[in-house]
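Researcher: Last one for today. Full complex below.
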Amino acid sequence: MGLRDDVAKVLISEETLRARVAELGQAINATYTDADCPFLVCVLKGAFMFLADLTRNLEMRHEVDFMEISSYGTGTVSSGVVRILLDLEQNIEGRHVLIVEDIIDTGRTLDYITRNLQTRNPASLRVCTLLSKPSRREIDVPLDFVGFEVPDEFVVGYGLDFAEEYRNLPFIGVLKEEVYADSE
Amino acid sequence: MKVPDAIERVLLDEETIAARVRELAAQISADYADAEDLVLIGVLKGAFVFLADLARRLTVPHHVDFIALSSYNRGAVSMGAVRLIMDTRASVTGRHVLVVEDIVDTGYTLDYLLRTFRARQPASLRTCVLLNKPERRRIEVPIDYLGFEIPDVWVVGYGLDYADRFRTLPYIAVLKREVYEQRSGGTENQRSGENGVAR
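Model: Here's the assembly. Have a good evening.
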């Protein structure tokens, strides 16, 4: 299939993903109780696939809500400020919030989302990310649950896209350089 | 994983769902083999689990987009008065659109979506629905790809909720009647509204 031909290598296989997502689920199960009823905030679009698998491993009562964001443009990159296209349906005041992200690189967007949600006075706020690229970090953001640390390569699949493509690959792959070099 | 007390019985287990999703994905992949520009539009919140599994099994290139809806009069029987909270990110004009829904009961929500997208002149417009409750239908809607027909019972899991609960159970289960008759809660009311109307 065409999409797979653009992948230089499989970084994390479907089986490895499944096992690690189950482990993350167990770690989250050990952190929260039914009474906590954690409120999972999924940042669209990238995290939806991870969320679908992660939550099926959760045993405590919990709820799921979505946010969709977009950047304002190049001028605000360093502040991390993003435009909220879809805000949470529910009020999170007094709730145990768990942000679910696909990948953290510079940390600026997550930092902004975290600050934004903190103003709503949740009881607690934690972050679960499937992937982290520590070498790209520009701002220190605490990550409570991390699936995999990945090198600074162009990763796609399992929700992560390049120009909206490759999102549906069931594994995490590294995109061939010639695929994205043209557009930069 | 233990089955919650509020569950009467498991209607469709994980393996049954996974097998059917694979079949749907194979059918869709065959039908859209020559389509240039396919976009799957998931209706929040309910369809996100189905969409996640379906998209992974497709062998044709496609984009994924989301739409969020709400009903105007929560709890009352909706005549298709649906409020669009978040539109798709990308335009659908000239593209092959496949609307992905978790459940169709009255049909009002899907009818609204089809009218909305048709007005935008896509290259084609089809629907992929995991669950169909034909007994509840109030308005005719075309379902091009269907997972399962189910009886008129309150189902939860695999994206479907009761008052935001049970949404992420890995199977589809029937909720005990006394649970939803206690209070007319539920943001997605399967008796008086339709799954997927409210996010």
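The helical segments of chain A are 2-5, 14-31, 48-55, 108-118, 177-181. The first helix of chain A runs from residue 2 to 5.
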